[in-house]
Amino acid sequence: MRCTRRLSCLVILCPLLVATLSRTADAAEQLLVSSRLNNQVLRYDGSGASIGRFDNGGDVHSPNGVVQGPDGMIYVSSRDGAQVLRYRFDGSFDRVFASGAEMIGPSGLTFGPSGDLYVANSLANNVGRYDRQTGALVQMIGTGTELSAPIGVAFGADGDLYVTSAINNRLIRYDGITGALDGVLFQGGLLSNPADIKPGDDGKLYIASALQNRIARYDPAANTLTTFVQNPSLMLPVGLAFGPQGDLFVASFNGDKILRVDHSTGTIVGDFVTAGSGGLDGPQFLTFVPEPAISGVIILIAVRRITRRPIAAGRSIRA
């Protein structure tokens, strides 16, 4: 059955998309979505209308994370191909950007403050850091002790790296400079198969809790995790992206659509990309991208906090 097939895929492999770019309301803003079940990355215009397939070449196998780099190029994690592929903005294939023995099941992608690429290697239980120019492995972050199918990766406003761990339902923080484990912040509760994680303009981190049809919101300053929106119509939310006007867009894996959520109220506005539009089948991750020649791309460099706030009692699992 369709639902059973999707659920078994999701628990281990949901990846992520990154939104570390500058946002503009320019007409050139487009939405890229990884359509996992038909091995495509699809492109939509600013109104949510399909404008065709994005990836041209590169042999994508189960596309997951999609992100625009500081160079204006588009990076796609090929989950079953064990590679991160790089494309030009027009969708033409550039090259295999990164691969290696540690890259098994690459999922979520994000660029760090230094410009290096961070990849959640979901089937290897690590996060790989890759040189922004060469794609060579710089550092491996995390181990199977705390990670079990890492899916989403994002840098917070505090400069630290946050990772979702799908199978053991965790949100984990690593030192943004050294990569050392800082702690398991939350486990279970509002997190069930956590997938993508994205920073908002409010300094909070938004997390897709796929098996609960929930988007949770983590406040690093208060160390609290709350529900931003929970609704059956989310139908296994996986990928998240903030749009040009600040609303949150959610990839509904079982619904084959992209929903729009009002950022100020947490209410579902409606379908931004309708079910199956453009051949969308099992959407995983998504990102809004501006044309580099028009809008430019900016990596948000967060200032690292000097002192760490204590983790609230009863809400932390320390390694």
Walk me through what this model shows:
The strands form 6 sheets. Strands 3-2-1-24 form a 4-stranded antiparallel β-sheet, with no helix packed on it. It has one domain: TolB, C-terminal domain (Neuraminidase, 6 Propeller). The N terminus and C terminus are likely disordered. It contains 2 helices and 24 strands. A hairpin with a 6-residue loop joins strand 14 and strand 15. It starts with a helix and ends in a 24-residue tail after the last helix.
**General form:** globular
| Main β-sheet, spatial strand arrangement | 3-2-1-24
Unreliable stretches:
1-27, 293-319
**N-to-C SSE string, H for helix and E for strand:** HEEEEEEEEEEEEEEEEEEEEEEEEH
Which terms summarize this structure?
319 residues, 2 helices, mainly beta, Neuraminidase, four-stranded antiparallel beta sheet, disordered N terminus, disordered C terminus
What can be said about this structure in brief?
Helices cover 5% and strands 42% of the residues.
Give the helix/strand layout.
Layout lengths: L1 H12 L16 E6 L4 E5 L5 E4 L9 E6 L5 E5 L4 E5 L5 E7 L6 E6 L5 E5 L4 E5 L6 E5 L8 E6 L5 E5 L4 E5 L6 E7 L6 E6 L5 E5 L4 E6 L4 E7 L6 E6 L5 E5 L4 E5 L6 E6 L9 E7 L2 H4 L24
Antiparallel strand pairs: 1-2, 1-24, 2-3, 4-5, 5-6, 6-7, 8-9, 9-10, 10-11, 12-13, 13-14, 14-15, 16-17, 17-18, 18-19, 20-21, 21-22, 22-23
